[in-house]
Amino acid sequence: MRLGLINSAWVQAGRGTEFGIQKTKEIGFDSVDIFADPLDIDVDEKRLIMSECRKARLPIVSVACVAVGLIDFNPSVQRFHLERVRAYLDMAFLFEARNVLLVLGEYIWQKEVIPPQEQWQTAVTHVRALGDQAAELGLEIALELEPFSLSLLNDVLSMARFLGEVDHQAVKANLDISHLALAGQPADLIEKLRNKVAHVHISDCDGKVHGDLPPGRGVVDFAPYLRAIKALDIPDATISLELEYSPEPDRIVEWVTEAYEKTSSLMRAAGLRD
Description:
The protein is α/β, with parallel strands linked by helices. It is built from nine helices and eight strands.
């Protein structure tokens, strides 16, 4: 199983594209995930990402997209975000990536004004349509489970139900180990998503608040989750480290290196890495 890094680790520490990709390779990662909005970056930046990854022989596995407007109650906002996610899919195709990591939104107004089933159905309809484009491009959509109380997909059962209703071969789940721990989801529940997982994220937390810490700096018991992921036998899978908001941005290289070494050790112990 490959070990990758989401490049937001470097971006949020103020380090540029070239630096981040080069360091990702030097530290030892097998791949990289790109966190960049195709509506915010120009063609020169896209070409830079592609050329630096080729130079480093670092394949792009995933492109991360947060599109909370897909379930906004305004149809105009929904239409904008549909086109925005389509732009992400096009960029992922350009990058020769495997998937677009898609974060859906949350129920609005504490589920008290708009019926929650209406927002749910809006998401099902839009994600199914986006799945059609993903399939045409040879890509997958990996839906992220978010551990927040009002998130549409905030536990394994809601993820399984959603995937069942979308019912599209190109739409699958992303398993974020830290999110599963924060949501109180035991590792054995992962079996319910067999054949429905496209991508995996790993990071640590304090057990209470979303943290994206290097493994070992929090309280997550990674071993059961990694064993469960291994048992899923996900074809050509990648585990990508998600590290954000380092408390010492000037020492981001040490922060990422620590996370790489600890995660690589955990994966070897679980039989997921040579």
